[in-house]
Each structure stands twice: as structure tokens, then as C-alpha cells.
Amino acid sequence: MNLEAFRDYSLHNFKKDVLSGIVVGIIAIPLGLGFAIASGTTPVTGLYTTIVAGLLIAILGGSKFQIAGPTGAFVPVLLGIILQFGYENLLIAGFMAGILLIIFGLCKAGELIKHFPKPIIIGFQSGIAVIIFSGQISNFLGLHHIERYEFFHLNIMEITKNLHHVGIYSIITALLCLVIILMVQRFFPKAGGLSFLIGILVSSLVSSLFFSNQIETIGSIYGNIPNQFPVPHFPEVTIEKILALLPSSIVIAVLVGLQSLLTARVGDEMTRTRHNSKKELIGQGIVNMVTPLFHGIPAAGEIARTVTNIKNGASSPIAGITHALFVLIVLVLLAPFASHVALASLAPVLMVVSWNICKKEQFASILKEKSEHSLILMMTFMLTVFTNLTMGIGAGLCLSALLYLKKRMKANQNQLKKAS
């Protein structure tokens, strides 16, 4: 932990940190549950990840305001890995990504974030937002038992084929949750992410009172959430598994690095501080090596929770530690109640989150340029949505490199003409 964060630290700062940590913890619970379910794992893995990642990055990270945990950016990647390799192999891939992040940190790869093409970042973030949003349509409509696929178009086709099975009570519950979230954010803008918890609680309560037997809950689909922390466990590792999972672990590592450093940079801009990118990457590496031991999924710095942390007056990593301990206390004391949450209530939460991360204004601005940046943006976006994130980022980088080389060659030719 950076002791510089505690220079001139006071009891007042401590109180603000604890309060901020509790607020962020309240927000982190529904997001942890929702992202875990959307990623194809059980809801409780989201809470385990929130606790372990939140605690460790507060202690080991390079930004004193960073809040880490499961994020929306990982949803399509993790779902694809689970569908292809299974949950236990996801844990291995996450662990390998942690090792790669430590290597990135030691090689000072964090400096490269300054040179990462903006159209690619906007393109894959917007693509991820589309995948998250579309992935929640089935829960919104009450189609909880339909087949899930790795690809966007196959999931849309599956939903379309099963429209005659939609659940009217799920739609009512989801709409109620969505309206509450939007109303709270409209009239109480300072509530921020608390609107998610209010929407989930109210809509789940209404559904349990008026049509409890007509709607699926976390408990009815996934069973009761255990109110205890898991014993450390790690699946068997073989050379074959390492080779098969290496591409996935590279994608996870790059995504964690990008997400965490971008979030840390936002925190710097809000607080006029400066994070340590090397320390942040190494800290995130350790986090992603430890979370799989406790059944957790890959984690990174998360912008909504980090911004909420700052806006609520946090001044040190104590806020991040408090947020993790608060979620742990809720898990131990209140886990059985979470089993009664309606799955339809979680869908609007992730839909609103996806809407917030889709970078609408920047996407439209780059498209209006009608330049090479527009081409890079659309290629990254389309391939992210219709294939996967690896293809989207890879193709975007290749096209960026080709266009840069073309520009340099043209500039050299012009210089030769002038010289002659």
C-alpha cells in the first residue's frame, strides 16, 4: 500500500473513506451478481471476485482510488471461454493472465496505453456494450432456459425462435426495475449506482408478493447462495491446457491492463493525482492470480465504482478495503436473501450499465469524420460484435499499422520528390 496516500490523514478522512466504501459496496453487490451470471458462471462467483479483487487492489494497486472487481468488459470474453473450455479452465486462464500482467508491469508496458489507438478502444467498448445489452434480452423476456451461444447473431436467432415462450411477469418485473432505476437517476442524480439496488429490491419484492410462482429467481435457477467464503482450490493444470488457454489468457491480460489503466487515468483527472502504472499492472496481476484460488473470475479496475468512490469523498485505499469487507459481511449475513432476487430484475441493471459504457458521443464523432479512424472504429466494432474481442482488437491493430505505414510511405515519397 502506498504510504503517501496517508500523508496528513485524519479521522475525518477515515470517516469519509468508510462511508464511501460502504456506498461502493452496496453498488458492487448487484453488479457482481449480474456480471457473473452474464459471464456464464454462478452468481456467488461475482461476490467472491468483488471481495478478493477489491481488497487486494486497494492494498497492492498503483492508484489509491481504484475499485476492482468483475466488469462488463469481460462478459463476452468469459462467456466464450466457459462455453468452449468450461468454468474450471477459465480459472486457469485467469491465473495465467495474472502472470502475464506481472510481466507487463515489470516491462513497463503501462506506458503503451498512451499510444493505443482511440478508435480501437471506442470500437471494442461499444461492441462489448452491444453484447452485454443483447445478452440480457432473454432474461428481460423471461427466456431463462434457452440455449446460449458464443456469437451475437446466434443468440439473437435463439431469442427470436423462442419469442412465443416469453414470460409476461418477467417483462413486468424488468420494466418496473428499469423505470425505478431511470426515475431515481433522473430525480436523485447523486444516488448514482444506488439506483440499481433500489430497482432490484423494489421489483423483486413486488414480484414475490404478487406473482412469486410465475417468475424465476437466482435461487430457483442457481440454488441458494452460500453464506461463507470458499476454501482455496485450484483445478489440475496440464501442458495441453496451458497451450490451449494461452490465447484466451493473453486477451484477458490485455483487457485487464487496458481497463484498469484507463480507469486509473480517469481517477487521476478527477483528483489531480498520478497513478503508478507499473505498480497497478503488477497489483492487477497478483489479483488475477489469487481470485481463481477462491473461485473468482478475472477482475480489473471498474470505472463506475471508482468514480463513485471519488465522488463520495474517498481519499485513500481504506475506501477500497472497506468496500470489500462490506461485501464480505453481506455475503456472510444476508446471502440467503439474495437467492430471492428475480433474474428479470438484474437484466435492466446490466442494460443500463451497457448503455453507459457504449461511448455513444465519441463513436458518433469518429464516424462523422469519415476518415481512416472511422474505418478502424467500424472494423473493430463489427468484428467484436459478430466474432469476438480478440478478432476485433487484432484486426483493428493490424489495420491501424497498415494505414500508418501507408501514411509514412506517402510522406517519404513526397520528401523524395521535393529533394529531387
> What Rg, in angstroms, do the CA atoms define?
22 Å
Mean pLDDT: 90
Q: Give start-end ranges of low-pLDDT stretches.
A: none
Number of strands: 2
- Overall 3D shape: globular
Write a brief structural summary.
This is SulP family inorganic anion transporter. This protein is mainly α and 420 residues long.
Mind explaining what this structure looks like?
- This protein has 420 residues and is an all-alpha fold.
- Helix content is 71%, strand content 1%.
- A two-stranded antiparallel ribbon has the order 1-2.
Write the layout of secondary structure elements.
Layout: H1 11-38, H2 43-60, E1 68-69, H3 75-85, H4 87-106, H5 118-135, H6 137-141, H7 152-161, H8 168-187, H9 194-210, H10 218-222, H11 239-271, H12 277-290, E2 300-301, H13 303-311, H14 318-338, H15 343-357, H16 360-369, H17 372-386, H18 389-419
Antiparallel strand pairs: 1-2
Main location: membrane
Membrane topology: Multi-pass membrane protein
Domain SLC26A/SulP transporter: 14-379
